[in-house]
Design brief:
single chain; alpha+beta; N-terminal domain of TfIIb; Transcription Regulator spoIIAA; Pdz3 Domain; six-stranded antiparallel β-sheet; 13 helices; globular
């Protein structure tokens, strides 16, 4: 039926008038109802009845078909089916539960084994005797003393499948749990100076980081944090514990020996990592521009998420658009789901141009009309840490004949997966769909995507300013442009 949403599960109401859909739109899961009553006055369209970000589970109708009960973040919620009759509300419940670990661990083990038996993408289990694995590991599970030991054993069993995107993880922390957070200054220190003299001398200050906004520069020495002097034995992380976003005073010595106090608001680890990554990208962009004499641009995709696709749109900016070609880098990209959208940006070709009377030159119609399109020659760089959907991207790049691929073959981790939650709250990854290349029909799992020009970076090169893979990519693309 044309319900118009990506449905994960469905249920018909007791009175037969409604179809309840657990569906995903824009990467957010919510509940929808679709009318089945031919006499209904409402149009036959899926109507959204929840709008929160968390996953919705175990959705079911009340006996009178007027309400829907479901789990959201571990809490029971109820929402009216009829439009305008109210919003979701929590159901107050309280219960005590005594868990017999000796029984629970066996149930969890059986759950994990059964899910993989029923849903694993390869019916031959990659050659493993799956019933025999149950018999082999059951005695070890019986002797396990903690949930961590159970997960370790289950993961050893799953390892016998020799499949990527697999494994069992711990239960998510309770809602509202706040982990200890250490503030970050957005700086790097001189390791030699610290080892020899116990001093924290700055070598790098990340743009837009806490230290940069306070005016700190490479060469400055950090002397104290909130009045606590720093020595070779001081734990800086301990002094910055719980300081994220909070006013913190630093005493700093400049290169000329003059001391001063500055006020900073330390960053979270995630924010510092994002700033560090953006600086890395800008350094690679400058590197490619210099190596190509200003002819080539550069973009890197961190992963294959919707956020990275949006960042790709931003990075294909005016500077990249005015180059003769662009180096596309997916090294260390661990996958996602947007490869087809990213390939489209590179594969689209111009067939119209537009110009106003005062314009010096016409512009491509796609760009003028707001469609993302590079329309320039490219070269792709991969390595052994380009995984999953990054490998799909590499395959799409080759199949579309967009250009040469330089670097190392990808990892060979290519299975489409889902996931489920076990009785004790543990998570289980389920490789459910086999991915094949339409070029040759071969299964891509355990078959890394090849390169046209193999280049392996020498050990230790990443600690220098040299990048032999980018050098080769620049050479190949310039050669193509020359032709």
């Amino acid at each position: 039926m044309p319900v118009g949403v990506d449905v994960r599960s469905q249920r018909i109401s007791p009175d037969g008038k409604w179809l309840l859909l657990t569906a995903t739109v824009s990467n957010q899961t919510n509940l929808y109802v679709y009318p089945l009553d031919e006499l209904s006055k409402e149009p036959a369209t899926a109507r959204q009845i929840t709008s929160t970000a968390g996953p919705k589970r175990e959705a079911q109708f009340s006996p009178d078909s007027k309400e829907v009960y479901y789990l959201d973040q571990g809490r029971i919620q109820v929402v009216p089916v009829e439009a305008g009759k109210g919003t979701p509300r929590a159901v107050a419940v309280a219960a005590e539960l005594d868990v017999d670990f000796e029984q629970e661990k066996n149930v969890v083990f059986d759950e994990a084994w059964t899910y993989l038996r029923d849903f694993f993408n390869d019916a031959t289990f990659n050659g493993a005797d799956w019933p025999a694995q149950h018999a082999k590991f059951a005695p070890y599970i019986a002797g396990a003393r903690t949930p961590d030991e159970v997960r370790r054993l289950v993961n050893l069993m799953i390892g016998e499948l020799n499949a990527s995107h697999s494994g069992m993880g711990p239960a998510a922390p309770p809602t509202g749990t706040v982990a200890p957070a250490t503030g970050r200054l957005g700086v790097r220190f001189d390791a030699t100076e610290y080892e020899q003299n116990g001093r924290l001398r700055l070598t790098t200050v990340l743009p837009l980081g806490a230290a940069a906004l306070a005016g700190l520069k490479p060469g400055d020495v950090l002397l104290a944090v909130d009045g606590h002097p720093l020595t070779g034995t001081t734990n800086l992380d301990e002094l910055l514990q719980y300081k994220v976003g909070r006013r913190t005073t630093l005493r700093v010595s400049a290169a000329d020996g003059k001391e001063r106090e500055v006020v900073v608001r330390p960053l979270s680890r995630e924010t510092e990592k994002a700033l560090d990554y953006r600086q890395w990208v800008e350094e690679r962009r400058a590197y490619v521009a210099q190596a190509s004499g200003g002819r080539l641009g550069y973009v890197h995709m961190f992963d294959m998420s919707a956020a990275s696709l949006s960042q790709l749109y931003l990075d294909l900016d005016a500077e990249n658009m005015t180059r003769d070609g662009v180096v596309v880098d997916v090294r260390n990209n661990n996958g996602g789901f947007v490869n087809v959208y990213a390939i489209d940006v590179l594969a689209r070709r111009s067939y119209l141009s537009m110009a106003n009377r005062d314009m010096a030159a016409p512009v491509p119609a796609r760009s003028a009309l707001g469609q993302r399109s590079l329309e320039l020659p490219t070269v792709l760089v991969t390595n052994q840490h380009s995984l999953s959907d990054a490998e799909d991207f590499s395959e799409g790049y080759r199949a579309s004949k967009l250009g040469k691929i330089v670097g190392e073959p990808t990892g060979g981790w290519i299975i489409f997966t889902s996931g489920t939650t076990l009785l004790d709250g543990s998570s289980l990854r389920l490789p459910t769909s086999t991915v094949r290349s339409t070029r040759d029909g071969k299964v891509m799992e355990m078959n890394p995507r090849p390169v046209d020009v193999p280049v392996t970076r020498p050990i230790g090169e990443s600690y220098t300013s040299h990048d032999s893979q980018l050098d080769t990519a620049v050479k190949e693309l310039l050669s193509q442009l020359g032709k």
